[in-house]
What does this fold into?
Amino acid sequence: MPNQASTPLHLIKLIVGCTSPEMLQDWVAIERHNGIAYVRTRTMPKRAEEILQTKGSIYRVINGLIMCRQPIIGFDTYTRDDGHQGTLILVSDEVIPTQPRPMRPFQGWRYFKAEDAPPDLNHTATGVADDGVSSLPIALRNRLSELGLL
It folds into this structure.
């Protein structure tokens, strides 16, 4: 069995209502649990400990493209509005842009292997992605990705 500690195990999840990594960065400042940014979901990953041990991230799908990731720093539970228990994926405030990659819609979250994850984009000294693509309108980025040009 390969050394799991050396290969990160990630999660991937769609974002509804968010149109860009910049908008997600704004949301991170608002959506807090005990002062920590989070992603709300229904179920606790069975491999949560492995995700934490391998320093996994949650990759975010925005408008049909994997566009960024956030390092996962923990998991917690909460009581949903319907009275059932839910899970909070506690994440870093840092939203790291990635090379855009198309992803079909799916429900909930999925495990995401490191070898399947897109690379991070380079950043300027200001922390903004300097890839020549980020400033393009989202519809154009989606179309370029569909054509295999991104």
